[in-house]
Write a structure and sequence with these properties.
The longest helix has 15 residues, at about 195-210. α9 links the parallel β8 (about 260-265) and β9 (about 280-285). α1 (about 10-20) packs across α2 (about 25-40) and α5 (about 125-135) runs antiparallel to α13 (about 375-385). This protein has helices at about 10-20, 25-40, 50-60, 110-120, 125-135, 155-160, 195-210, 240-250, 270-275, 290-300, 305-315, 340-350, 375-385, and strands at about 70-75, 80-85, 90-100, 165-170, 175, 190-195, 225-230, 260-265, 280-285, 325-330, 355-360, 390-395. With about 425 residues, it is α/β, with parallel strands linked by helices. The structure holds S-adenosyl-L-homocysteine and iron/sulfur cluster. Iron/sulfur cluster (SF4) binds next to loops. Iron/sulfur cluster (SF4) binds near residues 176, 180 and 235.
Length: about 425
Amino acid sequence: MVGEKALFGMGVEELRAVVEGLGLQKYRAVQLGDALYKQRVERLEEVTTLPAEVRERLAAEGYRMGLPEIVQTAKSVDGTERYLMRMADGETVETVWMPGGDGGERGDGSEAASEEEGEAGDAEDAVETHISKARCGAPVSSQNKYGDSGTSSQNDERDLGGYKRATICVSSQVGCAVNCQFCLTAKLGIRRNLTAGEIAGQVAAVLNRQRVRIGSGKGVETPSRINLVFMGMGEPFLNYDAFMKAVHVLRGMGIPESRMTVSTSGILPGILQFANEPVRPKLALSLNASNDAVRREIMPITKKWDIAALLEAVREIPFGKREYVTFEYVLLGGVNDQPEHAREVLVLLQGMKAKVNLIVWNPGPGIEFHQPTPEDVAVFHRMLIDGGIPTFTRRPRGRDIYAACGQLKRTVEPGFVEIQPVG
Ligand code: SAH
Ligand code: SF4
């Protein structure tokens, strides 16, 4: 099995079994856990709390720390960084670092939201932000190939010192089977699931690269407020167990679940299981259409689970007092962005503790949709607000380097095997 000798991703019990299997005392498991999740040590040889002999024995048994390796990076004009992460078997996924966040947390009642709102202003600002960006045009440069982001120290200082919080967008699968028509990741098909260690390991690798300290753990920069969104490549709820295990590992690294958001395209069994989790991140559902007919066209998975079934399942989740469920809605010009669609969304979400994140569609090669006009976005946004739904338009991050929502696509694709899409 892939990654079976990777220590990163193992829980307390598993680590204990490893050390006991080598005839070592239990407290060695605690030391190993601290090295993995608090100090985020990348190489077994560097775990200095363990005697050299123990390290050598672990290595001889085939164990390694097992963090994904950052093999390529790209940096956006807006500070966003996109990383190509290589797993032990050579498979790669992408992970995105967004200093300052992307506005996705606003209005969901969480701590992250209050910080974001305090800094970014209200919904009106969100509209303005979007419109001015859209008018400037997202610069899609011809240099959006991976290049090392080892930029000048001046840039690094500004980026590291200037942010108060950052969001990391994490992948859950190599590729995706869901086949949404507007998404670049869908073009890859699915290669395999990531393990819990590979999911959480992306976060550890990024935090190490950015030298972020969490609690008393490793790092030299200011303690930072890190938010995680499971919105990278893949469908987390089609890799449910590994995803949930990763959530626990990440908590062990000092990131509370209240700072994590998982986005699903609407995998009904996953939503039902998620509803019963004692510890769960915040939920975002990619609604993306106001009726089944349009949704079937752009998200064929709707044929399996329709909007009514998904909303019924979401309504059953025992949300906390201040908790809102987020509905993501990618605006596709002329397809789902007209006033009649906004009216239908209002009817669908009536009576729910819901907020809507509007995402202006990010283009990609070979995908035949159009961006909505800034006017249509503004009208759509205003109609939802007037209908009583807290609505935010996401700041597009890293579009110039293909790091924005739905733009994640491995650059290394030879031998990629497409399997039958779901739905
Ligand atoms: N698979 C999960 C999470 C990853 S996609 C899901 O679909 O929810 C994260 C978000 O990006 C989803 O809301 C998805 O609808 C959106 N998205 C996909 N492609 C996009 C694109 N080209 N432009 C803007 N948003 C996109
Ligand atoms: Fe997969 Fe999400 Fe892209 Fe749909 S939008 S293809 S579910 S990654």
